[in-house]
Automatic annotation (TrEMBL):
The keyword DNA-binding applies. This is Beta sliding clamp. Keywords: Cytoplasm, DNA replication, DNA-binding, DNA-directed DNA polymerase, Nucleotidyltransferase, Transferase. The gene is dnaN. Residues 244-363 form the DNA polymerase III beta sliding clamp C-terminal domain. Coiled coil: none annotated. Residues 1-119 form the DNA polymerase III beta sliding clamp N-terminal domain. InterPro entries: DNA_clamp_sf (IPR046938), DNA_polIII_beta (IPR001001), DNA_polIII_beta_C (IPR022635), DNA_polIII_beta_cen (IPR022637), DNA_polIII_beta_N (IPR022634). Belongs to the beta sliding clamp family. It is found in: Cytoplasm. Its main location: cytoplasm. It comes from the Bacteria.
Amino acid sequence: MKFTCEKSILQEGISTAQKAVTGKSTMPILNGILIKAKNNEITLIGSDIDLSIETKIKAEIIEEGNIVIDARLFGEIIRKLPNDVVSINTIENNSIEILCQKSRFTLIHMNGEDFPLLPSINENMIFSVPQRILRNMIKSTIFATAQDETRPILTGVLFEINNNNLNLVALDGYRLAVRSENLSTDNVISAVIPGKTLSEVSKILEEDDENVNITFTPNHILFNLGYTKIISRLLEGEFIRYNSIIPEEYNLKVIAKRGDLLHCIERASLMAKDGNTNLIKLSMEEENMIITSNSQLGMVREELNIILQGQSLQIAFNSKYLIDVLKIMEEEEIVMEFSSSVSPCVIRNKEINNCTYLVLPVRLLNS
């Protein structure tokens, strides 16, 4: 195998394929990137079996072939080379030679034939969504996936299409995030995608209106961005029926400026870091929300002007969960709905009804 390629193009390709290489695999070959040189393009593939990423880059192919190179070391070498044309060719003793200006590396490679095949996916039934919209939807929900593996289904995000709507849903037992977009498709789909996959997908998606084509099979999902394909297994099991968790009625409704509320809670949380609960208390009375927190080191009191409809209420939260939600929302004004001091709080945009967040309160001893 022998080819030449611009360093910046090669580096970007490696960086994309590398996102699927965890370095934790028991199969040594999966710590590498498969490089295929054919038809004046290089195909780079990284995989950990659950997630595979294939990306194609333009190069000048002098001799075709395929090899596997250690992903981390190869990535580091290319990144540190001068910004010029890189020449790569196989030499004896299962090695490759990397040349750029006056730099020369030789690296042991593995046999490309030993690299596991990607799942074959028939791209018949596909639907498309603009990359920018999907990227925003992932960022708006992924923070609420469970981090521990006790209930594996909750480490994923529900990908649901029905009634011309695409919904992404994540929950971890303490909070729920739902983000919706209108989509002109008759497909009906319900599948749970690992949070790790969507995290990597969001890094590859561009902030533009170019479409990403999505295909589902019973066990896999394929995101096709043209030059890059991301294939992931789906999580097995039934996702929680999230609609039944969201309260339909409330006794108290608060309209607040999102930025001001976020800053107040961030300041109050400085005092709440004593212990692991990050506990802050919210008191809603007339036109004010009083936010307090105290610890062995001292106390803090913040006051915020709000529009309040309904009874006054005292309720406590883990401040981290509120901050996560308020940081991700985009509108200037938000609506918070409360039923009681022990019931979940529902948070929505004031204007555009495209997201719903639910946060469980912390029970206080006297409530």
